[in-house]
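Request from the bench team (R.T.):
"We need a structural guess for the complex before ordering more NAP. Sequence and SMILES attached. Just send the tokens back."

Command: build protein-NAP structure.
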Amino acid sequence: MGFTGLFRQSGLSHKNKRKNIQYILLIGPETFFFRNCFIQMARIFITGSSDGLDSMAAKLLINQGHRVVLHARNAERGRQALEKVPGAKKVLIGDLSNIEETKQLAAEVNATGHFDAVIHNAGVYQVPNKLIFAVNTLAPYILTCLIQRPERLIYLSSGLHLQGDPGLKDFSHDTSRYGYSDSKLHIVILSMAVARKWPGVYSNAVNPGWVPTKMGGKGAPDNLEKGVETQAWLAVSNDKEAKVSGRYFYHMREEYFRPEAGDPVVQEKFLALCEQISGVGFPA
Ligand SMILES: NC(=O)c1ccc[n+]([C@@H]2O[C@H](COP(=O)([O-])OP(=O)(O)OC[C@H]3O[C@@H](n4cnc5c(N)ncnc54)[C@H](OP(=O)(O)O)[C@@H]3O)[C@@H](O)[C@H]2O)c1
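Reply to R.T.: structure attached below.
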């Protein structure tokens, strides 16, 4: 990490870089002391960062001086992801619709070292239900279980989770029964289960709003920048409002979510379903 990101994060003028360097105290390889505050550089892994919201979140975090590892479904999308996000040093490859590739991706994430935060962003919308369940529900579950525990976990949900079925369609293994709204409720259930089971980890869900990405479409009415900042803020901020767990955010504010997602009975049912389908148990 150069000083450029640090200047941006601390609000320093880059023009006065030389003059300002003398006031920065290097505490450790990842921590600086400047203007009476500690600035800590975080390492963040973001799924589905070849496009859309989290390609933008990756840029935002890199501009703040953090280190971001990207993820894409295949090598070609990986190459494009690196082109889109200057400053990202690495991209990991794995098709999240494939259970074995998702497990392999988790192993590769771990091989690169510990992450401070993981943003589970990858998602699909207007595709067959089985694919929706694989990418939106099962992949974040598998990655959560298999990636070495970070300090912060952020899960991209949607306002449509309110229309999801908390009864898990009678606990069916037929994943074609679960649609997009169900999958976005699943991710809230997962984030709340993690918050309950891993008290040392900040685990939260985010509704980015209906925003104009490939998924949201050109006519989406919500603010794209605001759809990006919450997940980046939750990943790195030392604000007390960001260092919380088991919450659901919209535009950096806590919002109402389906209360069933906070119910341990629903959570256990959900985790058991994912374990049976993926063969991966949730770590105690
Ligand atoms: N946009 C909205 O209005 C909106 C609203 C509410 C919630 N959300 C949620 O926000 C998140 C990001 O959405 P977005 O709007 O940024 O969508 P997007 O532009 O379609 O980006 C989705 C990302 O997920 C990746 N992805 C999809 N399937 C994958 C697979 N099988 N393996 C690996 N990567 C895969 C995509 O890769 P490719 O580019 O290669 O397909 C892309 O990088 C999603 O979880 C979505 O449900 C979005």
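Two things stood out. Residues 1-15, 19-24 have pLDDT under 50 and may be disordered. The chain has two domains: 1-40, 42-278.
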